[in-house]
Amino acid sequence: MRPSLKKGIALGSLLALVVSGGCKVGSDYVAPQATVNSSYIQIDESKGIRQEVGADVASWWSQVQDPVLSRLTNEAVTNNLTLHEALYRIQAARAVLGSTRANQYPQFATGGGYSYNRRLGMDYNDYNASLSMGWEIDVFGRLERANEVATANMEELRELYRNTYVIICANIATLYGTARSFQEQIRISEENIEIQRQTLDITRTKNELGSASKLDESQALGVCRGTESSVLSLQTKYQTTLNQISILVGRPPGYVDELMRTPAPIPTPPEQIMVGIPAELLRRRPDVRAAEQRVIAQNARVGVAIGDLYPVFTLTGSFGLDGESFKDMFNGDSIAASIGPSFRWNVLNFGKYRFNVEAQEHTLQQQISAYREAVLEAAQDVDDALVSYVNERDRLQTLSDAVDAYTDAYNLSNERYKSGQIDFQRLLDSQAGKLSYELQYVQCRASMFISLVDLYRALGGDWMGGTSTASQSDEYVPTTQVSSATPVVLSDETASTTARYTTREVKPKGYDPEAEWSERQERSRERVSMALHDDEVVNEVSSL
Fold first, then answer.
1. Whole-model pTM over 0.90
2. Residues 6+ positions from 411 with CB-CB distance below 8 Å
3. DSSP secondary structure string, 390-401?
4. Which has fewest Cβ within 10 Å: 111, 192, 439, 543?
């Protein structure tokens, strides 16, 4: 090898070693401050809401223990297409990160060719082969900041995947509670239709005997037909809710109909609910962590923009072979090589790059403000869910009392109407009140469960652990389970062979609606019997 070539290689290698240990322009990331309260304003231990540092959401959420809900949740996190999209976005971002990191290393390219030439009456061949290299030496850390951008972008997509997971689990639970509510409302309405038909028969009989008018019969018929029409409306809402569940589990409409065919109660919330402190939302809520990753990425973009103000040093080299025949390419005179540094510096651009730095800095402040807003909204979500849950729990008790009162009123007015003691309108009023408050009671029970789901989602759902800064781990699975459900990345083959639901009767623990209504009716009969007995005593005393 020629001495000059040896000197060039040695000089280039020395330059690479010296300048590769440079600094990074821009500021290193510092987590922005966010304002949070020391406690949630709706904490009320008398209502079963307790606050404890490091409270585990799964410890109380798992107490719901509804096997059908667990099954639907598991199916959703396995097959939901929105989750699949989020996973593919993560994989794409990982590939972009790999491509960005590659810019820090030497880039090689090869080439070669053959040509037949004729010049000045002479024919000759030309064989050539070459290897070229270019290496941007990251003196000021511009490429390193670009890696930070790509890393934060990927971490943001991971957090968005986790956020999607929590939302899908919450949506499944909400729709499931709504569907069970519609089932119960349909059952109650059908039972009241039977009562209304009996009342219609009584009015017809009285009309035929002349002890009631045609008006009573028409009113009874109208009330009965109105309730029948409401059942059809409830059935429509029930079916559309099931269709929504089917789509969420990644299947066509009708997929879950058979599983839901057997009526089951609305899931019952646990007696005690543990929540953490507002500051824990910074690490629990995936949407908050995603907002922070956007701040991290933008902070690094400021560094990239500042790096454009500095010179870019590049080490280039080439090695080539050229000859009139293939064997001539390997002669000493056919070898050509070069290596050496170069630089490029944007010195005259009329403020183009400085304005870009300013724009990136303002965008950073925008992302910091968005992060702080996300923290505030997260705390609001928790307090909103807490106040809704507490109030729905109190409202359920008042509605329960109203149902008992109107059940007594109906049973008592029904007996008195048969005996001719009251007019038909009072019977209709008590009948309508009984149906209205029974439906409201079921709706309130569903609302209370949905408030619990909203609280679970507001607290960050299933995802535990992690820090407020970007994680370098390649794993992104929950460390706890929602009713035994975990997100699974399926291959196409696995997804296509996922087993359909098998139908079996399930008996979730807790609230039994049919038993509750039977007990209510039995207690009402006892109270009405006592009231009728008291009326008889009063009448006997009055007749003396």
1. no
2. 524, 525, 528
3. HHHHHHHHHHHH
4. 543
The contacts of residue 178 (CB under 8 Å, 6+ apart) are 241, 446, 450
Pull the structure tokens for residue 460: 């960050």
pLDDT, average across residues 173-196? 94
Any residues with CB less than 8 A from the CB of 183 and at least 6 apart, and which?
A: 238, 260, 263, 264
> How many Å apart are CA 385 and CA 461, to the nearest integer?
13
To the nearest 10°, report the CA torsion of 186, 188, 190, 192.
-150
Identify the residue whose tokens are 């359920």.
396
> If DSSP codes are grouped into helix, strand and coil, which group holds residue 434?
helix
In one letter, which amino acid is 159?
Answer: E
* Confidence band of 7 (pLDDT split at 50, 70, 90): low
Task: Using alpha carbons, select from 381, 501, 376, 358 the residue that is nearest to residue 69.
Answer: 501
Residues contacting residue 172 through CB under 8 Å, at least 6 positions apart: 69, 72, 73, 76, 245, 248, 249
Cα torsion 72, 77, 82, 86 to 10°: value is: 170
User: 327: alpha, beta or left, given left = phi > 0 and alpha = psi -120 to 50?
Assistant: alpha
